[in-house]
Specification:
Blueprint (H helix, E strand, L loop, with lengths): L1 E5 L7 E4 L9 E11 L1 H8 L2 H6 L4 E2 L3 E9 L11 E4 L2 E2 L19 E2 L11 E5 L3 E3 L5 H4 L2 H12 L7 E5 L3 H12 L4 E6 L2 H9 L4 E4 L5 H8 L5 E6 L4 H10 E9 L11 H6 L4 E4 L7 H11 L9 E6 L3 H9 L5 E5 L2
Parallel strand pairs: 11-12, 11-14, 12-13, 14-15, 15-16, 17-18
Antiparallel strand pairs: 1-2, 1-4, 3-5, 3-9, 3-18, 5-6, 6-10, 7-8
Helix pairs in contact: 4-5, 4-10, 7-8
The chain binds zinc ion (2 copies).
One zinc ion binds next to helix 4.
Length: about 350
């Protein structure tokens, strides 16, 4: 089968033929139809310091996908051939303290498809049935991005949203999803900031009431003015940019909450007294998707017609054009980029 492989310890990816996997007991074989390309894939292609420490070539990359069940391994019940599915890409141990207390998204033994084991940029992938979710009528191009969309659902829905003012800092694909989810979940006012006008336009399409270009306008002053002098009840920090993090702390209201998803590249100096303690705020670190609470909430928002992520999908490429897909992401102007595999 055709696959995109990280085949050596140097920059670059290879589109090549690899053996088709077969499902073991408790696993299913999935024919991939659509797959999402994300920053993680870019890190692996570029062979940056994180990739050098984590990836053991050769490995099929890709962790966001949806497709059709093509075969069942021994003992599989509750799923059938031909069903359209997606899957949680974090394969967890099931026995650590976190797994056994309902917090598998922070399992200390997590293995990620397309990172620690073969992934989804291929014609077929094998997944444990525990991780498989049926699409229930959701199209596979949407199913393919339920992983990053799930990060946005996790970020937004673990805060108190109905009737709240929400600031989304950073309007990449996950930030744009967060804008639409906050609207769907009943936020009174959604404000979005970024430095890129194309991304701000996408945030407006997804329902932001107010967009702020942080390169030219004062984010904190605008948020204070737009929230009756209080600051935002909830801030979703999706950028990881140090200056934006400080804006998040300054723009959240006293006693508000900051959901932290964006990953800063290095250390960020924080004034704990003024930025956190004296404001009485709560910080929440978002990693992955709650397993499987986030997935069930997301599937209901999608099948119920409350939230449509499709405007965020700006580019589609065939599997062989992974380099073009990565170039689109590098430009900084793209929304979500997906591969059409079958
Ligand atoms: Zn991803
Ligand atoms: Zn675990």
């Amino acid at each position: 089968m055709q696959a995109i492989v990280k085949d050596n310890r140097a920059p670059g990816l290879k589109v090549t033929s690899v053996p088709k996997p077969s499902p073991g007991p408790g696993e299913v074989l999935i024919a991939v139809r659509h797959a999402g390309v994300c920053g993680t894939d870019l890190h692996i292609a570029d062979w940056d310091a994180w990739a050098q420490g984590r990836i053991k070539p050769p490995v099929v990359i890709g962790h966001e996908f949806a497709g059709e069940i093509a075969a069942l391994g021994d003992g599989v019940t509750g799923l059938r051939k031909g069903q359209l599915v997606t899957a949680e890409g974090h394969i967890v141990c099931g026995h650590c303290l976190q797994c056994r207390t309902g917090n598998s998204h922070i399992c200390k033994n997590t293995r990620i498809i397309g990172v620690d084991r073969d992934g989804a940029f291929a014609e077929y992938i094998v997944m444990p049935t525990t991780n498989v979710l049926t699409l229930s009528g959701i199209p596979t191009e949407v199913g393919a991005i339920m992983d990053p969309m799930g990060n946005a659902f996790h970020t937004v829905l673990t805060a108190d949203i109905p009737g709240s003012t929400v600031l989304v800092v950073g309007c990449g694909p996950i930030g744009c999803f967060a804008v639409g989810i906050a609207r769907a979940a009943g936020a009174t006012k959604v404000i979005a900031s970024d430095v890129n006008p194309k991304r701000l336009a996408l945030a407006a399409t997804m329902g932001a009431h107010v967009t702020i270009n942080a390169a030219t306008d004062d984010v904190v002053k605008t948020v204070i003015a737009e929230t009756g002098g209080e600051g935002a009840d909830v801030v979703c920090e999706m950028s990881g940019v140090p200056s934006a993090l400080h804006q998040a702390f300054a723009a959240v209201r006293m006693g508000g909450r900051i959901q932290l998803l964006g990953l800063p590249k290095g250390d960020v100096p924080i004034n704990f007294a003024d930025e956190i303690i004296f404001k009485g705020i709560t910080l929440y670190g978002v990693i992955g998707r709650k397993m499987y609470e986030t997935w069930h909430q997301m599937r209901r928002f999608l099948t119920g017609g409350q939230f449509d992520p499709r405007p965020v999908i700006t580019h589609k490429f065939p599997l062989a054009q992974i380099d073009e897909a990565l170039t689109a992401i590098r430009s900084g102007d793209a929304g979500k980029v997906i591969l059409e595999i079958a």
